[in-house]
Amino acid sequence: MYYFSAEKYDYATTNMKEAGEGKFCPFCNSRIEYEYYQYSHIGKFKCPNCNYGDNQIYKLATNIDLKNRKFDVDGITYNIKFNSIYNIYNFLAVITCTSLYSIDTEIVKKALSTFVLNNGRLEELTIQGIPTIINLAKNPTGSNVSLRILNEDDDEKELLFVLNDNVADGHDVSWIWDINFDSLNNVKRIVTSRNSCL
Fold this sequence. Notes:
A 4-stranded mixed sheet has the order 1-4-5-6, covered by helices on one side. The protein has a two-stranded antiparallel ribbon with strand order 2-3. The chain has 3 helices and 10 strands. The relative contact order is 0.14. It is globular and about 45 Å long. It is an alpha/beta fold. The protein has 2 domains: 3-114, no CATH class; 123-195, no CATH class. 19% of the residues lie in helices and 30% in strands.
């Protein structure tokens, strides 16, 4: 078993601020103790009873700089096009797998530095000269991470929140109650809309 992790980044918290799972150990049912939360229930934790979570880390992300979109692993700097902590974990999974298969680090660096999403997942575009980010979220964690990205950006901004309860995304949208809108800052206007089959 190979584990990867990310050191505490600037916006990590010592208390859970969002909806999350992982409160109890899956092996002995004891309550897990967290040193910090990166987002939701992702962070540094350990079970006080059986030490679940106290694992040897194979790949660790350090010097996480989301503003300049880069991080280090094993002294190597990776430049990326994303400014969210959850993507650091995604890229760490890639780095772990490619390392195990001895794929050249320069190939991995190039792939990560050029990788973009164009499917509404943190898609960046310009609308009438205004920089815009579109992010599709289908659960509280995805939504809360989107709001974190807003909060971690000091520039003034506007938020358009569109709720869709069509068949493709599911009619039960009760999960929106677990979105942490209370933490918003630097947002001068919020516009809401609904796309419904009703």
